[in-house]
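Task: sequence in, structure out. Protein: ABC transmembrane type-1 domain-containing protein.
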Amino acid sequence: MPKFVFLWTDIALWLMVAGALAYVWHVRRSPNLRATWARVARDTPAMCSAVILVAFSVVGLLDSVHYRPLLPPAPGAAADAPPVYAPAVRSALDGLLAGTVLTRPEKTYSEPLAAHQFTKETMLVDDKPVRDFPRLRGAALHLTDPEKERGGDIAMRLGWGLAAGLAVALAGAVLLFACLTRATGSASHAAEELLAGRADIPWRAMTITFALLCLTVGALAGLSTGYHALGTDRIGNDVLWQALKSIRTALVIGSLTTLAMLPPAIIFGIAAGYFKGKVDDAIQYLYTTITSIPGVLLVAACALMMQVYIDNHSDLFDTSAARADLRLFLLCMILGLTGWAGLCRLLRAETLKLRELEYVQAARAFGVSHWRIMTRHLLPNVAHLVLITVVLEFSGLVLYEAVLSYLGIGVDPSMNSFGSMIDGARLEMSRDPMIWWNLMTAFLFMLALVLAANLFADAVRDAFDPRTRRYKPSRLARLGFLGRRPEAMLAADGRASKTGEAP
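Result:
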């Protein structure tokens, strides 16, 4: 039985998952929130992006279950000897990839799907030194003549991978069809919703996105059974393996930093707008001072102080993974505590408007305490701004981590991240021949994650912000709303918000 290791960021991620599940339960009990999120569910780009984000989240959560493997007993050890665990910390994702080509390092660079090393070495052939490209140590070992067999073998593995991905996609489509049939009570109606795209939720687009995702994963998995599908880096590590491990770092930076930013932004923003006067002046002076300092310099100073503390207290960490994880956790706290000024300004402006409304004035006239007014009447009515900011800040923080790691003040060098991959590839593009696959992989993975997050964030903003709410004529035409009065459209879109309630 392995020994499970609970890192700071692991605990934070799983607590956020529990919080998300609690929020889903709250949405199901609230008609207004349920109607608002239904508008998000009707947005085709947002739901296709949600499929991509779920796939990234699954990889990140698998990489957030850490343990130390149990070592076999030493020869001659007593029967009652305590168990001995490996010093290296592994994750559930490492366990799933164990024994594959992804975990077999090479000596140095190798091109995608290559059988030989990218650089030449001096080898002894018939007791004579020969300068040539050596065979790889962990890939294409099953080939006796790579020049003749490699093309056909790659095509065969690619075909098997695509077939497996297509099988998983078909299984998912069949499961979705069964669920729709059970929900609608008619197989023909379910087929019409799924194939013709006439459902309120874009099931057809989501199914196509899931199928393309399965085909991509299947192709990479099939090729990775015998080759480094995306090549290796300078020290021989598989680039695809590094990209998969970097997903967790991006998710931690994007989500945990945003959560660290919320408490000071909400407390100071609502307090400044509600109390005004000296309280407002003090809070404005505080966040104006913070924003006047260049963000990169402020984060760099805090990160360097954090690194000095970690270096001077190395005895507090039993493994290198715990040390790197604490640096990542503190980096998220630093980014959150230095980046709350923008949301604070927004909440202050909204609170200045809300405090003058009748229901707040009535609550003050009846002697309701300031704390209860802020938590009961003001906070729910600015919650949509908080949610919009959370989803919009995520992608920006993922990109910001790449910049910080490129500057050398980001995550620990032993931890995989997209910024570290880009930093390692900055000198590779100037080589001749050029080494392009490391930077390309980091670019494609970051593009998929950030683009999906941005598209989903746009839909959330449109749904929760009444000033940008919009209706799609094609969707309304299928539902039979064209030509009807606006009151009927509002009634079908969800109950209108009552005065003083959140949308």
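Residues 481-503 have pLDDT under 50 and may be disordered.
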